[in-house]
Structure formats: structure tokens, C-alpha cells
Amino acid sequence: MAGDRNTQSQPQPGSQQSQNDKNKDSTNPECKTCNNVDCYVTNTRGLSQKFGAKWIQCDFCDDWFHGTCQSLTNSDVATLDKMDEKNVKWFCNTCLPVIEASLQGRGRVNNNGEDSLALHSTHSRKLNKIEDIMQQINAKIGATNTALEERMTKLEKSYADAAKSNTENLKKGMEISDSARNLLKKSIEQRETENRKNNAVLYGINEQEGKSALEMIKDLMTSDTFHATPKPLRAIRLQTSGPVDKNKPRPIKIEFPDEYSKWEFLKRTNATLRGRKIYCKLDECKEIRDQQYALRQEIKRMKGENSDTDQETDYRIRNMRIQTKSPSGEWRYMTKQTSV
Asked: Is 0.70 topped by the overall pTM?
């Protein structure tokens, strides 16, 4: 391996660097390009002028040169000196063609076509040095690749562990979220069921301006039919999605103090006021109402199919199922029910 580069103004005579095998004169070290200790350049007026050029050492022949004589600025020499720690090599203009020819497999012969023993020895020494340098470079590349592979393996493992952990955490979070959602849904359903158990919905009461729904319900209950039924606590008109139809009054939701009062009002209303097209139903949730609507549509469809025949069949809904009335007057559940 070539010695470290010395980027001082010049090597000192008598020092270890000027006494080793670097082809320097021990008392008057010279640049191997210009053969001078000092470096001279031509100024703009064509005169020779002394220039403080930095010195640089070839990593192949170990000779010293003025950086300027090798087409290098002082800044270039300083940069190469810093890069020496990273095992970056610099070769002089004399050695570089030899190295390129050796790497390409071209030999050198003298003008007579005969091998020169001295040149062969020099080339052998330089080739050995090239091999040493290449081995060092390959070793560094191999070490770097190994380090990169180890780092990539660690990164891949770290990423896999992180992805697995995140997936597990996300899965747990989703499970917790689903569980919380189900609990909330059940809680809401229980609260709505609790709120609805004392309610009933009354249909067929015409709307009157200046009179509240509760006042109209109390007026309705003044007859002897409801004399023993407790009065409701609250009553409100339900809203509709479309405009109000005077011929089809909006239903009234009624809240009673207890379930017994609700059932008494419901039974008496349906038993005595059906002829006036006034009837009462339970305050069901939307899901139940949708199922009841589907059952009513199915009854309408079956009546339409039987309209072309002389046979008339009565239908009704009980326990979310359709019943038919037999000729003997007995109500029976249909064997084939429509899924709702």
C-alpha cells in the first residue's frame, strides 16, 4: 500500500519521507514532473513566477509531485488528502496509463520487440501492488455488502414485527370497537323498549286547530267505554315525511302511567271504535313496523290473486305471522310464511 499523502508545501530534506524509496534526492527533493523543488508558473505577462503549490504522493509509484504539475489545484489536493481516510487512491499521469493497460491485459515491449527485464520487473511489482489494492477494495466492498445485508435483514425483521404488532393491535381495537358497538346498540334497544312499553299509537283521530292531541284523547275517553281506564300522561302527533293530508290524519303516540293502562285503552278502543275507523296499536320500533308493513303487503297481494275467484279469504296478522280464516270460522296460521 502506498504511503499517506503529504499535502504540505513540500517534503523536508532529511526527513523519513525524503529518505525512503520514493526516488527523491536526500538533500534536494524534487517534483518528478518538473524536476524542481519549487513550482513555477507563467503569469499573464509571460514571465515565470514562483507558486506555492501543495505536494501530493502517487499511491502507485510513491513519488512526490507538485499538484499544479499534475493539473491539480491546491483545493483538489486538499480534497484528495481528506479522502485518503476512505481509501481513495490517486495515481500520477505516468502510472495511470500503465495501470489501465495492465487492467486491460496489454503488455509493454521495447522498440526491438524484445522483453525488457527491468521493465518486466517494474511491471511485475506494479501489478502486484494493483492486485493488493484490488484485494483491499474487494475486501472493503465485501464487508460493506455484508454489513448492508445484515442491516437489511434487521430492518426486514423489525418491519415484520412492527406490521404484526400493528395488525394485532388493529384487530384487538376492531374487536373492542365491535363489542362496544354491540353493547351500545343493546343498551339503546333496551332503553327504547323500556320507553315504549307504556306507549300506544292511536289512528283515525281528525286534527283540530287550537286543540292539543292530549285534549282530544281525554275528550275521546269521556264516554262510558273508558270510565275505568286511567288517563294518559302525554300525547303527541307523529310527524310525517310528506305534507299533511286532511283526509288521513297523523297518528297520535300516547304515553300511559303503566302497561295495564295501555292495554286497557288499546283493547277498549279496538273493540268499540273500529266502526268509526279509529283503532290503536302498540308503539313498535322501526324494524317491527317494517316487518308488519311487509306482511300487510303480502296480504294485499294474496287478496289480489283471489279477486278473480268466488272464494273470499280473510287474513290477519298475529305474532308477526299471517293467519287465514277457515270456512268453520277458525283462524289458522299459514303453513308457508313469507320471509320479512
From this structure: no
